[in-house]
Amino acid sequence: MNLPCIITALPAESRSFIEHFKLQGQDLNGLQLYTSDHCLLLQTGIGKLAAAGKVAAILQERPDITGIINVGIAGCDAPLGTQLVAGCVEDAGSGKRWFPHLPPLRALPDLKSVVLQTHDKPETHYQSGVAFDMEAAGVFSAARGRLDSSSVQSVKVVSDNQSSLVTAIDKAQVFNWMASCIPTVDTIIKYLQDPIVDQVRQVDAFTASLAQQMHFTATQMHQLHRMTTQHLTLCSILPVLDSSDSTAKAMLQRLKSEIAAIPLSYTSTSATQV
Amino acid sequence: MDTIYIEQRVSEHPRTLAIVARYPKARIIPIERYNEVFNNASQNFRKQKQNPALILAQKEGERVLPTPEQYHIGGQHNYYFSHMLNCIYDCRYCFLQGMYRSANYVVFVNYEDFFADIKAKTILHEYPSWYFSGYDCDSLALEPITQFVEHCLDAFSEIPQAWLELRTKSTQIRPLLKRPAIDNCVVAFSLSPEEIVQAEEHKTASLQKRIIALQQLQAHGWKIGLRFDPLIQASEFEIIYGRMFEQVLSAIDIEAVHSVSLGPFRLPRDFHRKMIKLYPDSKLLSAQLEYNGMHVSYPKSTETKMIDWCESTLLDRIAPAQYFPCVSS
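Structure tokens for the assembled complex are given below, as produced in the milestone run.
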């Protein structure tokens, strides 16, 4: 099952999502985590270092996370409440950049893409096409080590600009902006769904259970994983254990011959239909 | 195109401006060099393939490279060049899935530099040299956007010692039909049985449409090539390949065909390793394959049987001089 994790910095940014996704607070080694079976939310606190540390920690604690959406407020030369998607995330301190592979335009037709710069302090030199925040680079530096460019996204809502400075932001407004962001986050969660995750998990669980029943070397474990995947793909079912499978070697040999014998048909329905 | 990355140094290039004008709603993201997006390590080719972005860039360094030894259609000096990286089609056997980290399309807009390099290579040789354009992309598929082939044919018409192969599965042949054929160009179509087109060559034109395109090109005077490559194993291999050979060869003027080539399904080992991770649910990639040195291929006996059968079937209909097997030892 796919498991997205929303990353916010502040309670006011988290509340709407906690309510919408019916998340329950959970204390996980000091992480401020909210969970359900289908979605997680991690509140990191302010700043890229806090974000990087806590995102790294949650990815370690929850290896079942398949996607990350960083959501929050940002400064930009655009009207307050405008939603933006990061086409490029830049760490203003180091100059390091990340390019998320964005969801299709048809899914998010009204979302403008910007360069999202992460600063250590609130930035007020507002520019068009550039937004400022304080966490995204931390989220990306920690998450992109494990997740690919399609699976880590950042959505921001404009909270301050030339005519309404950062000091004027109030919590109620932030709550409302985040609530207006829920459909966007829902769309991105759908985009993050990866259809092969279930197959991979099924194979992982099967091979792990076999490994408890007989001894496999590391190489044999790798072969077992591959052959199980092949079997599942070609026959739509997991391999069945045979009474002749006295050792891992015997089992792998039997599986190899079984796979080699599966006909690959491009026309009939009797063989494996492609 | 949803997203267009543009190298800053080509942001004002007339071709960049023309391409961007076609996509007024696209998100435009400036970049320094195309590699910072295209070669980034943590990318997922399969996911990107759902909505690839376009990267407009300038190609520097070696633009025209020698082909692998077995990759030729009779010429002594053989080169390939890629004005574009990646393909709009999604063929499950394609090596590009294993070669590139990204499924985004890169278009190099400095076409004239490619043509200058081709001229420079050509004058080095006493005999004609060959230039293959469809190695890292489909030569014609993105033609409405790039108009590369149009410029390329203009350039080749001025270098008669240089031969061009356009390699495609596309039926975007309008640019070829609206101009007179040139002698030193072969338009080569990759062909597979319709059953394999439907199951493995996603987003491509049907076999029938490719055959119609071949007929139109021949009628217009273009030299055509037939590329039965890669051969895909199937339990009813002889039936579906036999049917395809008949469909193709009965529809065209065989004697006028410039060249016919045949190649088995093979992948470098590293590419295969990446591809089975990307597509664990692919039946083609799950079939029995064997490691053969640095390559992965069907078991030798299967491969030989497939090639021998195709070769003998084809050589009943075409002259040996037209035939170029693309098989490495």
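Helices of chain A lie at 11-20, 48-61, 136-143, 171-192, 197-213, 218-235, 248-260. The two ends of chain A are 25 Å apart (CA to CA). Further analysis is deferred to the final report.
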